[in-house]
Amino acid sequence: MLYTFPELIALLIVICGIVLQTWFGIGFGLVAAPLLFLINPSYVPGPILILGTSLSVLVVSRLMLMNNQGEFSWRRIAPAIFARLPGAWLGALLLVSIPAWSLSLLFGVTLLLAVLLTWKVFKVQTTKTSLIIAGFFSGLIGTATSVGGPPMALVYQEQNRITIRNELAAFFLIGTPFSILALYLQGNIDTEIAMLSLKMLPGVIIGFWLANKFDGNISPKSAKPVLLLVSAVSALLVIGKGLSGWLGT
Question: How far apart are the first and last CA of the chain?
Answer without folding.
Answer: 38
